[in-house]
Structure formats: structure tokens, C-alpha cells
Amino acid sequence: MTIAALAAGVAASGLTIHAVSTLLAADRCRFGKASPLKAAAPPPVSIVQPLRGVESFSRETLASIFALDYPEYEILFCLADAADPIVPLAQGFMAAHPHVPSRLLIGDDRISANPKLNNVVKGWRAARHAWIAIADSNVLMPADYLYRLQARWRDDTGIVCSPPIGSQPDNFAAELECAFLNTYQARWQYAGERAGYGFAQGKTMFWKREVLENGGGIEALGAEIAEDAASTKLVHRAGLRAHLSDRPFAQPLGKRQFADVWKRQLRWARLRRATFAIYYGPEILTSSLPYLIAAALAAPEFDLPPALGFLFLAALWYAIEAALALIAGWPLTLRSPLAWAVRDLLLPWLWIQGWAGDSFEWRGNAMNVAEETLAEVAEG
């Protein structure tokens, strides 16, 4: 077998896997998919939401949490600092919606190295209901948010989550973040879940209280630097699965800085490497770049110039990605293919950097994935 023929096989295999992962994700993420039927008497739900600082879309996301179409739910806002500038805004929404039970809980319980977990623990403990959704403050909740989470619960479910979907990008850096979040990360998460490898995602985590309590309580999520990784391992130890909601929920982006997009992706890469190294290793193969190079090497086998082979596979690859964005109703502009190409150029370097260090920054907090740091913080 010639090198060109071998390269042709590699390119064809990569394109096939890309197309299959897209098909697996497309049905679950399809825009316009019917909302789940509303149960006659759905169980009451507690929503625990950590807050910190005023974000670009704080008004919109706060408005969405108070506008849910659900008969009985409570909201528990969690803050580490009473002087946080988000406090007056949250209190204004609470006062404007007295029909929705809501509380503002302030304090910082140092149970782990994870500031978010330290913030939400008081909300978990104060929750009145058996079903609890822990949702980040930048989730834009549709009216049927809680119904969609409930609809994915099965007999074998330990947790229901939703990956973040970037929306409303206002500059190219935000479009690059959409390229990472939507047709890449969300696509692989849904494809993995359909193949039986579901992982929790911290953006939205929907629990039945007894599942987490049986696994050691919310303190058990401090066993890992990332609460979603700890959640995944906890439900797997219980013989249960992590499921994803249909039509994942949006995270409006607005304007982004390239440095912030890179820092966020580097943080997630190092967390994945530290918590699921066996799955992180093959990520190097998820960029289009090796298959585009293979297509260029294979082109002479078909009497074509290498550049044409490269461009032909790139056109097919990104046409498939565009189809997923179109089916799902995710942002799709003339600049999207460029954003996808830039992302794929960055992915190999991001993968290398994921192995190259343990430190990262999260909302101004210097953090480290090393086990000794976890132990020191937990003991302190």
C-alpha cells in the first residue's frame, strides 16, 4: 500500500467519523423539536444558582429564571460576598416577582478547591425540594427549561445536564467561542452520550437529591477540582448514567476577547486531562487538521494536486458542520467557516498545552489541578 493510499484511508475515516458524530448529535439538538409533554403534577424543583459580578447578559438571564413555565419551583441565589455588585440587581428581580419563591444566600463554605462548589453548597443544603437544578448564572433558560430536564430522566439516570451553546456572538472572538462550544464540543458530547459515554456538564446539573446524598452528599463533589467530573464519577460508581437534555440551553456571549476564549478553553482542557486522561488523549484526533493533511497527501493517488485534495475535504468537513448549526438553530454566519478553521488550527496546540501544565485561572481565582493543592485547600 502506498503512502497516498494510506492517507486516503485516513482522510475518509476522519470524514466518516465527523459525519457520524454530527448525525448522532443533530437529532437531539434539532431546532423546533417539540417540547416534552407537561406532566399533570410535576414535582417541585429547587434551582440553585451561584452568582458573582454583573455580566453582559445578567438582566436577560435573571429575567429568564423568573419566567419559567413550571407550577412550583424556588430559586436559591448563592453569593460568597455580600458586597458583590450583582446583589442589588438580583434583589430587584426578586422584589418584582414575589410569586416565585426566592432567597439570596451569602457565605463561603470552604469544602473544596473549587470556588463555585464552595458557593453553591449552602444553596444545596437550603433547598426544600427533592429535585435540584444547579445552573450557572449565564444560562439563558427557556420557559420549558425544567420540563426538558425532567423529560430526560430515566430509570438508569443519575444526573441530567446540558452543554453550553454559544449564542448572540457580537465579534469574531465570540464566533470562535461558538466554534468551540457548539459544533465541536456539544457535538462530541451528544455523540458520546448516544454511544453510552455520557459525561456531566457543570453549566446545568439536574439532580434527584437522593442520588447525590447516597454518593456522599454535595461534599463528595469536592473530590475533583471540577464538580462536573466528580459528578460523572459519582453517578458511574452508583451504576447510573449522565444524560443530556434535548436542545441544549444557550449562553449569550456578546463581545469576547481572544485571550479570554483561550484561557477558558485551556482551563477546560487541563481539567479534562486531569480528571479523564484516558479520554483526553484521543482528543488530538478530533481536529480536522490531520485529515486535511492526509487528503493533501492522498490527492496524487487520484491525479489531483495536493492543494485541491486539502480544499475538497475542507469543503465537505465544514459543510457537514454548517448543516449541524443550521439544523440546531445555532449561530451560522459567513465567518463561521473561518472560525471553525481557526479553532481546528488551535486544537493541537491546545491539546499539547493541556498536558503541559496544571495551573489555570477561573474568574480571577488561580487554581491548580494537582492533587496536593486539592488536599491543602480542603484541609485549610
Please describe what this structure looks like.
The chain is an alpha/beta fold. It has 2 domains: 3-25 and 277-371, no CATH class; 34-257, Spore Coat Polysaccharide Biosynthesis Protein SpsA, Chain A (Alpha-Beta Complex). 50% of the residues lie in helices and 14% in strands. The protein contains 14 helices and 11 strands. The strands form 3 sheets. A 7-stranded mixed sheet has the order 3-2-1-4-7-5-8, sandwiched between helices. Helix 1 (3-29) packs antiparallel against helix 11 and helix 9 (258-275) crosses helix 13 (336-356). The chain is globular and about 70 Å long.
Structure characteristics:
380 residues; alpha/beta; Spore Coat Polysaccharide Biosynthesis Protein SpsA, Chain A; two-stranded parallel sheet; 50% helix
Short description:
With 380 residues, the chain is α/β, with parallel strands linked by helices.
CATH C-level class of the largest domain is Alpha Beta
Fourth-level CATH superfamily of the largest domain: Spore Coat Polysaccharide Biosynthesis Protein SpsA, Chain A
* CATH architectural designation of the largest domain: Alpha-Beta Complex
The helix content, as a percent range, equals: 40-55%
Number of domains: 2
- Mean pLDDT score: 93
Structural class comes to alpha/beta
Radius of gyration: 22 Å
Order of helices and strands: HEHEHEHEHEEHEHHEEHHHHHEEH
The parts where pLDDT drops under 50 for at least 5 residues are 371-380
Shape, per Cα inertia axes: globular
Note the total helix count.
14
Task: Count every beta strand, where a strand is a DSSP E run of 2 or more residues.
Answer: 11
Under CATH, the topology of the largest domain is which? Spore Coat Polysaccharide Biosynthesis Protein SpsA, Chain A
The strand order across the widest sheet is: 3-2-1-4-7-5-8
Into which percentage range does the β-strand content fall?
5-15%
Distance between the termini: 61 Å
The main β sheet shows up as: 7 strands, mixed
